């Protein structure tokens, strides 16, 4: 199954991508994680992307379209994949249409803006393996240490309150129109994301089946 996860920053895309990945054994592909890895490795792409990410703006379409175009050609995507954080603009969605892939479902995880700030301010991430935690809602076994790979957990600079409002504005302006784009294709399913992680997971799995 080829899936897209849509939703505001902090809606729970990464968290649910992990659950679907476990259930269906298909890779979760996060453009955010790929970009952060590039920044950590100080690649040319990372250096270019950093100022956009830190400002809460989107990285130029051609950069992320290139990333996804290459990634989807890899062998592990043959039996399906989960796109987490791509597409984020109409031109990205149109570019995906032109790649040789068929999208089965688009799951839109909906959380009101008021709930987003606390999700993001408490988020802690592992830059090595991409695992995500929360100071209150998903604590690691040992504070500050990734359960999966043992690396140190960090707070993303763009999760600080001063950038979150910019990211939400970017989301409403540039990403939300994708709901209509996929609704017209008949593949959009809306999932309520305000409740606990397990509730959202149950709704997400249901949305994959109908
Ligand atoms: P979140 O999970 O909070 O929604 P991501 O990790 O997906 O955030 O993305 C972090 C940042 O990386 C975005 O604010 C944006 O600057 C950049 N980014 C990630 N994916 C894309 C994309 N598809 N198009 C443009 N920029 C992107
Ligand atoms: P996204 O990928 O959409 O930006 P994440 O999956 O990273 O969102 O979730 C944002 C933060 O909120 C993380 O710290 C995560 O642990 C936490 N989180 C995710 N889903 C829920 C939920 N249903 N209730 C409470 N916290 C959640
Ligand atoms: Zn890790």
Describe the structure.
The chain is an alpha/beta fold. The protein has a domain at 2-26 and 79-112 and 166-209: P-loop containing nucleotide triphosphate hydrolases (Rossmann fold, 3-Layer(aba) Sandwich), CATH 3.40.50.300. The protein is built from nine helices and eight strands. The strands form two sheets. It has a five-stranded parallel β-sheet with strand order 2-3-1-4-8, with helices on both faces. A three-stranded antiparallel β-sheet has the order 6-5-7. A hairpin with a 5-residue loop joins strand 5 (123-126) and strand 6. The two termini are 13 Å apart. The chain binds adenosine-5'-diphosphate (ADP) (2 copies) and zinc ion. Residues 9-10, 13-14, 30-32, 35, 52-53, 57-59, 64, 85-86, 88, 92, 158, 167 line the site of one adenosine-5'-diphosphate.
Helix-strand makeup class:
alpha/beta
CATH class of one domain: Alpha Beta
Overall strand count: 8
Shape: globular
**Biggest sheet descriptor:** 5 strands, parallel
């Amino acid at each position: 199954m080829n899936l897209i996860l849509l939703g505001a920053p902090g809606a729970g895309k990464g968290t649910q991508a992990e659950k679907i990945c476990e259930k269906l054994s298909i890779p979760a592909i996060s453009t955010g994680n790929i970009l952060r890895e590039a920044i950590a490795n100080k690649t040319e792409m990372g250096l270019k992307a950093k100022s956009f990410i830190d400002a809460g703006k989107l990285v130029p379409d051609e950069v992320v379209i290139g990333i996804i175009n290459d990634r989807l050609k890899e062998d592990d995507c043959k039996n399906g994949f989960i796109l987490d954080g791509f597409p984020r603009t109409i031109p990205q969605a149109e570019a995906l249409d032109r790649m040789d892939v068929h999208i089965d479902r688009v799951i839109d995880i909906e959380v009101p803006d008021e709930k987003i700030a606390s999700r993001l301010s408490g988020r802690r991430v592992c830059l090595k393996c991409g695992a995500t935690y929360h100071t209150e809602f998903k604590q690691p076994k040992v504070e500050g240490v990734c359960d999966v790979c043992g690396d140190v957990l960090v707070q993303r600079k763009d999760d600080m309150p001063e950038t979150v409002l910019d990211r939400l504005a970017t989301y409403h302006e540039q990403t939300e129109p994708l709901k209509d784009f996929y609704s017209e294709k008949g593949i959009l399913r809306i999932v309520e994301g305000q409740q606990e992680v397990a509730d959202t997971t149950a709704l997400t799995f249901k949305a994959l089946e109908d």
